[in-house]
Amino acid sequence: MAAMALLVQKFGGSSVGSLERLKAVAQRVCNTRRGGDDVVAVVSAMGKTTDELTRLAHSISRHPPQRELDMLLASGEQVSIALLSMALQELGLAAVSMTGQQVGIVTEAAHGRARILNIRTERVRACLAEGAVVVAAGFQGAANGGLEITTLGRGGSDTSAVALAAALGAERCEIYTDVEGVLTTDPRIVPGARLLESITCDEMLELASLGAAVLHPRAVEIARNYGLPLVVRSSWSEHPGTCLTSNRRQRVAGMALELGKPVDALELVRHQGLIALSHVPDRPGVAAQLSEALSEAGINVDLIVQSLHEGASNDMAFTLERRDLERAQAVVSALSGHLGGPQPFVVAAYPELAKLSLVGAGITGRPDVVASMFATLGQAGISLRMIATSEVKVSCVIEDSDAAQALDLLRGQFALTPSQVHLEAIPCEDNTPAVRGVALDWGQAQASVHGVPDWPGAAAAICRALSDDNISLDTIVQSECTRQTPLGAARDLAFTLPRQDLDQARQALAPLLQQWPGAELIPGGPIARVSAVGAGMPCTAGTAGRMFRALADAGINIAMIATSEI
What we know:
Shape: elongated
Largest sheet: 8 strands, mixed
Distance between the termini: 45 Å
Radius of gyration: 25 Å
Number of strands: 25
Number of helices: 14
Strand content: 25-35%
Strand order of the largest sheet: 3-6-2-1-9-11-12-10
């Protein structure tokens, strides 16, 4: 029977967590193969095997060598692939099990967190040509000419499956899990969470990076970059699940499958204005009232940032089209005396600004990208007026007079072609929902550096110091108010980061802050980050206001705000 298509199907640990479940997976793979399609099945270790192996290692050593840990953990998938191959053969199918090394996954030599460089697909293709199902071990590969076993880190089986599908030119990759697909939010918290029929890879990257556990961000990044159709389905039903879409289609070639260019577009939006507010009361409902008043006036704001300044007040700033600047200033000034603060807040308006944005799925988890952007601009004496970050975009607001130079510098720094440079924001697609889903990340901590010199390159120095220790910042907010230090005017820079990285960040920043008299790192307590995600948000006025209002009505105060454009 001629094959209709090549499919890669990935089954996680819970899907093969017992012999009964593993046999059910074998039957699903068998049905797909007998339907006429070629199949590569990528399998995780059974159930909690990886956790048990990790526990055994730590019972021997408090700090197991990462190389030996890779040798140990890779054995879990070998059990799964051998048993699933046996089960398929019992059903009358030809099947062959292969480790990550045997399927040709070549990685960098970084034990415990290796990224995929290349996949040598000849052996897999030969087995498929003979009519066999290939059962591949997820989570693992080989480095140094095949002499070293490596593992890919958390979510590695997702990454293995999507990378194999891209390298083989598969029609699609199907990720089988315990849920029907991608839901609008966590059903353990919101029982009424709805199943999404489709979602863009950019939207899914945001959700996955914010804690939505159904897919790992690295897997979504590969699917996005190579235009691979990706489907999330339940292992226990025939529901079609959720389809992830991407409008990109680049060819898998060379030695950089997972280490390609992290930035694939540069956007410049000119004729922007900025409203800066200081001494805004720090209580629930203030952000909602401001956003609602602007929306009622027909003013659509773009970037919004807020951080705690001093005492019971916040700094807040937002950008908008320059033509709306005077009306927006009048609207917020009229509210100043009616928000219950100890004093009217200060409103300042700044015309003649531009917004410059780097776009790319490779920004996720790569702090050197942000550091390089800020350093490039700082070395040219270009000051950053505002910073906003997300998983697929980093935006900064600069003086309009610096826009052309900044555009040219960043295009060169990130080796972008003219077709990758956009002189206006990439428009929303028709009928794109403003919000696809809401994610909650419990594992965040807040910190701020007080007394950052108000000169070009200061923010870059902070990001570089953290990047050199491989610490990624999730949200970065620069204060509007300045304070005086021995070095002159200074601002505060607030950020969030994974809670477990806070102590490491303090150590990484200490040498830098010693060079800035009056500067200090102020760690905050644990916080949670709630994020509304949707590609249609920039085209839908009032979305932020509705979110702020929902939180205010529940009596929830907002510690920080940082919007992106998705």
